[in-house]
Design goal:
With about 250 residues, this protein is mostly helical. It has one domain. Helix content is about 75%, strand content about 0%. The chain is built from 10 helices and no strands. Helix 2 packs across helix 5 and helix 3 runs parallel beside helix 9.
């Protein structure tokens, strides 16, 4: 299935809906934007920079909303971030061959689909303290992957915090949003070293995700996303990931 790239308005709608769903759980939507761009047939050379730009906008809105609601934890945030930012910059500076990039993003999208379909227990409460050395190592790995692929890393960090019992759901969402923001900024700066022009429709898409981020984050500080909506989005991500892995151009 390939969407018409000549109609940027269709992608705007998909981006808006993605921003609503993702921001409601503290994410910014990069894997969803990559999925939509994959299905639309956009070339890999513009996908990473576009996803990072849209990620920054939504992550900023989401992080501010969750912070104002009192869910942010600095002690939980900084150990993951201090090593992730330079690694995200490094990953953003690297340019992978088209086939390799599509395969890597395809794997990320399949993991994102798994993460959304089988979301960790929403009622889990924080029970343990994060080991600092482990947080630094995990942060470095997540930052590098986020810069390399154009995601913000929150799609991995959020479930990790919940599964390990390091954070409550909304605290995890708040920390994930801030993590996504700083890593997306670092990744985009790294991307400018091998700069690729953004699509002409980028301002339109930016406006769409800003609206979606405002709506979704407002919902997220009160009630997390519905299971059915997450699982529908998971199906889309899985289809896009399989397309990237199986169909070589």
């Amino acid at each position: 299935m390939t969407l018409s790239v000549s109609d940027p308005w269709l992608l705007s709608v998909l981006f808006l809906l993605t921003a609503v769903l993702y921001s409601s759980v503290g994410n910014a939507g990069a894997s969803g934007y990559l999925a939509a761009m994959t299905l639309a047939g956009l070339p890999p050379e513009v996908m990473k920079s576009t996803a990072l730009l849209l990620n920054i906008l939504v992550a900023l809105i989401t992080a501010v909303r969750f912070y104002r609601a009192g869910h942010f934890s600095w002690p939980l945030f900084w150990p993951f971030t201090v090593a992730s930012v330079p690694c995200a910059f490094l990953g953003g500076a690297l340019v992978l061959p088209g086939a390799l990039y599509r395969g890597l993003v395809g794997i990320v999208l399949l993991f994102a689909a798994y993460r959304l379909f089988w979301y960790p227990d929403q009622e889990r409460r924080r029970t343990t303290v994060v080991p600092r050395v482990l947080a630094l190592l995990l942060g470095a790995c997540l930052g590098f992957v986020s810069g390399l692929t154009g995601i913000g890393g929150g799609i991995f960090l959020g479930p990790l915090l919940l599964v390990m019992g390091w954070a409550e759901p909304r605290q995890s969402a708040s920390v994930s949003a801030a993590f996504i923001l700083v890593n997306s900024v670092a990744g985009l700066f790294g991307e400018t070293i091998s700069v690729h022009a953004l699509p002409s429709a980028a301002p339109l898409w930016a406006g769409a995700v800003v609206v979606g981020g405002m709506v979704g984050s407002e919902l997220g500080v009160r009630r997390l996303a519905e299971v059915t909506l997450r699982r529908l989005l998971a199906v889309v991500l899985a289809l896009a990931g399989l397309k990237l892995i199986l169909l070589r151009r």
